[in-house]
Amino acid sequence: MALSENILCELQRIVGRENVLTSKEDLIPYSFDGTAAMIQMPGCVLFVKNAQEVSSILKLANQTKTAVVTRGSGTGLSGGSLPSVDCIVMCTVRMDKILEVDRANLTMLVEPGVITLTIADEAIKAGLFYPPDPGSMKISTIGGNVAENSGGLRGLKYGITRNYVMGLEVVLPDGEILWTGNKCVKDVAGYSIKDLFVGSEGTLGVITKVLLKLIPKPAAKKTMVATFNVMDAAAQTVSDIIAAQIIPCTLEFLDRTTIHCVEDFAKVGLPLDCEALLLMETDGHPAAVADEAAKMEELARKNGAMEVRVAKDEAEANKLASARRSAFSALARVSPTTILEDATVPRSELARMVRFVEVIAKKYKLRVGTFGHMGDGNLHPTFLTDERNKEEMHRVHEAFKEIFDEAIRLGGTITGEHGVGLAKKDFLPKFLGEAQMRVHRELRKALDPNGILNPGKMFE
């Protein structure tokens, strides 16, 4: 049912008429996110400026049982910010202030609409470091990162978004404003409520402030690229690096298809006669960095690396790193539709999983490029397809069913960083099992009994 005039008038009163979009042409950009082949028109879009406006909107929505979907930049890859039918889309991009940088306590307090790269840059200005670096960091917002518990290239050494959230201001579905967490390094008073909201995909509350942990900036960094003629050699190199008690800040891989697409797109001088490429970066004290880089180069060569290219300076390091960071953009140029997934397995099973993806692609007559975070077992099989071809899209769906089943069988998970959303909610029960699904449902019902927040996402 379309939003009533009474509800629209009240929403205009809360945020101002100029901050409410209702015309079809204005709503179209908010009818999809970064997930392929998913589109749904909302009832309206609101631009909110503070927690009080969010609270008033949720009070109204809760009273009228109107669905609300919170949205940042819309870069998500699991349909998490896709509107539900005739819902209110509450966009937080104008809540974009950095409220405090506290060098004494190594924290930063921000609003949810701040771009991730802006946070990283502000930390550097203060001589500090914010490690999480999702591939979309130039456009994604921190509120979305927290809601999806985003990862990134530096996850192996530094962890993911959850590891840097010290506190949250959250507006609950009934409009009550909650603060959880603080600047204390140690705090075990009560349940860790903030961790409920990290990765909750907008189903439990609306994040309106984030208190982030910062760390000292590494003094030095070394970047290198190694190429191999078989994927197993690259995987063994990763295993050997970890066994040598080296934890690189970045340990990424590209397969042959992705290498060719990246080189065609970015022209960074990648060799085209290899089956796998490893991007390896170490950071920290200069002496430790030099030692670790030398050991990683030695291990790569020991495992038959065709070439190990070490960056001479920061400019070349950035050029080499761009080979991995441009992987999705490069693959997206090949076909009308690019479906990027993130099945994750134990590191020991990564080479086997990459080969399985290749077998499945051949079985279903699909083109796939695979890249990802080899250091933490998170791979991104990326199918190059056309959503207008319904028969081919059916084959893509069947292929992913087998890929997720295999990931679970190998002790992995259906998502390492993209979230469940709409795209993978059918696979969640098999992964979680009955007891965990029951607890998920009970938690959600306790906080949102009327089911107004992001309905239909993660599970029914």
CATH architecture of the largest domain: 2-Layer Sandwich
- Please state how the strands of the largest beta sheet are arranged side by side: 15-12-14-13-17-18-16
Shape type: globular
Fraction in helix: 25-40%
The name CATH uses for the topology of the largest domain is Uridine Diphospho-n-acetylenolpyruvylglucosamine Reductase, domain 3
Please state roughly what percent of the residues sit in beta strands, choosing from under 5%, 5-15%, 15-25%, 25-35%, 35-45% or over 45%. 15-25%
Number of domains: 4
* Radius of gyration computed on alpha carbons: 22 Å
In DSSP terms, counting alpha (H) and pi (I) runs of 4 or more, how many helices? 15
Count of beta strands: 18
Q: What is the overall pLDDT average?
A: 95
Question: Which class best fits the helix and strand makeup?
Answer: alpha+beta
Description of the molecule:
By secondary structure, the chain is α+β, with helices and mostly antiparallel strands. The chain has four domains: 5-91, Uridine Diphospho-n-acetylenolpyruvylglucosamine Reductase, domain 2; 98-216, Uridine Diphospho-n-acetylenolpyruvylglucosamine Reductase, domain 3, CATH 3.30.465.10; 220-328, Alpha-Beta Plaits (2-Layer Sandwich), CATH 3.30.70; 335-409, Alpha-Beta Plaits. 36% of the residues lie in helices and 20% in strands. It has 15 helices and 18 strands. It has helices spanning 5-15, 24-27, 51-64, 116-125, 142-148, 155-158, 194-197, 231-243, 256-266, 286-302, 314-325, 327-332, 350-363, 390-409, 428-447; strands at 20-21, 44-47, 68-71, 88-91, 98-102, 107-110, 128-129, 165-171, 177-181, 206-213, 215-216, 220-228, 250-255, 276-284, 307-310, 337-340, 367-373, 378-385. A seven-stranded antiparallel β-sheet has the order 15-12-14-13-17-18-16, sandwiched between helices. A five-stranded antiparallel β-sheet has the order 5-6-10-8-9. It has a four-stranded mixed β-sheet with strand order 1-2-4-3. α8 (231-243) packs antiparallel against α13. The longest helix is centred in the last third of the chain and has 20 residues, at 390-409. 48% of the residues are buried.
